[in-house]
Automatic annotation (TrEMBL):
<feature type="modified residue" description="4-aspartylphosphate">
    <location>
        <position position="64"/>
    </location>
</feature>
<protein>
    <submittedName>
        <fullName>Response regulator receiver domain protein</fullName>
    </submittedName>
</protein>
<feature type="domain" description="Response regulatory">
    <location>
        <begin position="10"/>
        <end position="129"/>
    </location>
</feature>
<dbReference type="InterPro" id="IPR039420">
    <property type="entry name" value="WalR-like"/>
</dbReference>
<keyword id="KW-0238">DNA-binding</keyword>
<dbReference type="GO" id="GO:0000160">
    <property type="term" value="P:phosphorelay signal transduction system"/>
</dbReference>
<keyword id="KW-0597">Phosphoprotein</keyword>
<feature type="domain" description="HTH luxR-type">
    <location>
        <begin position="155"/>
        <end position="220"/>
    </location>
</feature>
<dbReference type="InterPro" id="IPR036388">
    <property type="entry name" value="WH-like_DNA-bd_sf"/>
</dbReference>
<dbReference type="InterPro" id="IPR000792">
    <property type="entry name" value="Tscrpt_reg_LuxR_C"/>
</dbReference>
<dbReference type="Pfam" id="PF00196">
    <property type="entry name" value="GerE"/>
</dbReference>
<dbReference type="InterPro" id="IPR001789">
    <property type="entry name" value="Sig_transdc_resp-reg_receiver"/>
</dbReference>
<dbReference type="InterPro" id="IPR016032">
    <property type="entry name" value="Sig_transdc_resp-reg_C-effctor"/>
</dbReference>
<dbReference type="GO" id="GO:0003677">
    <property type="term" value="F:DNA binding"/>
</dbReference>
<dbReference type="Pfam" id="PF00072">
    <property type="entry name" value="Response_reg"/>
</dbReference>
<dbReference type="InterPro" id="IPR058245">
    <property type="entry name" value="NreC/VraR/RcsB-like_REC"/>
</dbReference>
<dbReference type="InterPro" id="IPR011006">
    <property type="entry name" value="CheY-like_superfamily"/>
</dbReference>
Length: 221
């Protein structure tokens, strides 16, 4: 994914344990001289600020899942919600099954146990080159761009997920128009209108057209 064969990789770390941070700062560049630890943090809030700052933005951030101020999941979610530029690798001293699903949903590109330093260093290289570690058990970790888009869509108001035509049809339905009148107004077939209604209900997870209309009214308040 990223052609960084000859360039150095700026790695950032966040872990509430000072001993672990010191160990990782020494071990990572020792095992791969191309990896530079550009900064480390013990607080998740600091890691979020520094990871999003263009001056201190790393090429990859390793975050422990068990932090004291906020969770590692929250660190991943907040960074991924705001940018696709920083790949995220979750690390944990516990079983990765404990956090894998939540880390993936929060936008991380993989998760590994932090006790295995060789695997950790190899995983950094894989993510920087290919964008993701891929499957972890039955959990699929996607690249940062895809994860960012997913979180952006999940943050959207449900009505905003509809296409312009679907929004227009739902608005007219909510205002009391019948599908046949909507078809005449938009110069499209009644079958096309009904297809749009089926699609918009599916996008809104609405069990009926009335429920979809109620969601429209709630959005307008």
């Amino acid at each position: 994914m990223n052609d960084r064969q000859d360039s150095r990789i700026r790695v950032a770390l966040v872990d509430n344990d000072a001993f672990t941070l010191d160990m990782l700062k020494m071990a990572i560049p020792r095992r791969n001289p191309r990896l530079d630890v550009c900064w480390s943090a013990r607080r998740g809030a600091d890691a979020i600020d520094w990871a999003l700052d263009p001056v201190t933005m790393p090429d990859i951030l390793l975050t422990d899942m068990s932090l004291e101020d906020i969770s590692g999941v929250s660190v991943c979610r907040e960074i991924r919600r705001r940018t696709e530029r920083v790949p995220l690798l979750a690390i944990t001293a516990f079983s990765i099954d404990r956090y894998a699903n939540r880390a993936a949903e929060a936008g991380a590109q993989g998760i590994i146990p932090k006790v295995n330093l060789n695997e950790l260093v190899d995983s950094i290289d894989v993510i920087v080159k290919h964008g993701t570690l891929g499957m972890c058990g039955n959990i699929d970790f996607v690249d940062a761009k895809t994860a960012h888009q997913r979180l952006a869509e999940s943050d959207m108001c449900p009505i905003q997920r509809l296409s312009p035509t679907e929004q227009q049809i739902l608005t007219l339905l909510a205002q009391g128009m019948e599908p046949r009148n909507i078809a005449d107004m938009l110069s499209i077939g009644i079958g096309t209108v009904k297809t749009h209604i089926i699609r918009l209900r599916k996008k809104l997870n609405a069990r009926s057209t009335k429920e979809a209309m109620a969601m429209w009214w709630n959005n307008e308040r």
